[in-house]
Protein: Murein biosynthesis integral membrane protein MurJ
Amino acid sequence: MSIGRASALIGAGTIISRVTGLLRTIVLVWAVGATTAGGNAFAVANQLPNNIYAIISVGLLSAVVVPQIVKAAAHDDGGSAFVSKLFTLGTVVLLGTAAVATVAAPWLVVFYAPDYGPEQQALATAFAYWCLPQILFYGLFALVGEALNARRVYGPYTWAPIVNNVVSIAGFLVFIWLFGAGTASTQWSPEMIAVLAGTATLGIVVQTGILFLFWRKTGMHVRPDFRWRGVGLGQIGRLAGWTFLMVLAGQLAGVVQSRVMSQIPEGDPGFFVAGNAWLIFMLPYSIIVLSIGTPYFTQLSEHAGAGRDDDVRADVGRSIRTLGLFIVAATAALAVAAVPMSRIFTNSREEAVGAAGVLLCYLVSLIPLAVLFVIQRTFYAYDDTRTPFFFTLGQCVIVVLTALAASWAAGAGVIEMAQLAAAVALGQSFASVCQVIAATWLLQRRLGGLRIGSWMLALGRFALAALPAAGAGWLTFQLLGGTGGWTVSDKLLGVLGAAVIGVVVLVVYVAFLALLRAPELSAAMTLARRVLPGGR
Structure:
């Protein structure tokens, strides 16, 4: 499958997945509220298995397993023995991790949210008992999905989460039908906890089961194999060791952020609002960066494995320019439509304005993170997980320091408690900018030149086109009434308003790129047509 076709397939699936994911979150906010104690308790509990999933998927699998499975494909058996041993080991580790984490649920909740009151911590713990078994199914989903990606079977991994979202939406609607909407923490019963958290876990189980139906397309025959020697698992252990430490550092930094935000009182933008702002932030990242970048990573791994450094340098520049054209437009559109977008996940104008501040602070790092996606995975393609650990460790230190500084500022009255989540988000973005600068410099040294000037010139050209586009979008928002207009009066109208503003930004952006005669525009339009329904 070509890069263009693979990107289109992943992009189309990701768009539908993210749209249904947005609907899932809208229904969840409707059920539990955006700034309630119950909503924050569920957000913390449901985030726990996701944090483990981040270690497995973003860390070990993306960094290590894809390149190793690509190499194992050259074995006489097509890599079946290697994958059998890998999957057996992975399943054992996942089962053990899920069991230990579930038993440790009360301590995990206190660790992540020490400033919650006793009732809220008890509620979060009850949710966690239902949610933490997701670790097993998240891990299996990531393991099988990355193996499919390594064999250029991209579709199922992207499309399976749609079923999860549908199951969750149905379950949350049942919750609302049975128990009502906007439930407060003092009203929770065991049946309510089981329906809400059980629905979240059931969606992950179904999502994982569907993925297994597509395994035959890999052409590998996998069976349980507890003899974990002889096919390079030691090499994976050495590579994964650094990656594990890197992601662990990121998770510890996230714990500090969570503990800081647990100070935020009910009614102000807190953990749940920050999580929803991150979801909006990740929407363009997932649709654009992952859909285009994932096929490039497989190709880049092949070129690096063959020692074709010139091709790797070309891959890096080409992917950054392609990603940049789309991600700059997305950044401009989200920035000017931040309030209507935030209204989708809140229950009032005031909550939307507060949540928009958190989103804007996250958006500072959207373009740098797109560049980092390519740079970091280039290190992985060369089996170098040690270097990413060190530049990510620096980022984590900055995240911790800025979160603690934000906590001090809120406690000292320098900023209001309602601004604490936004301050934490801004610190996260600043750390990411520092990280991408360090990572690019280190990769430049390793490959002896990345032709940085060529893709930085392209990013500058995109930014130049984005300025008038953002201005047009902001003017549109003001003409529609601004924060007092109809785009912020209701969730569905927030969707419509954000869409109108986004279309204006996109049209002006493309027009200015055409005036600037950006050479990347033609290829990008071809790729976009493939992603759209009916495209080829």
Notes: The longest helix spans residues 37-72.
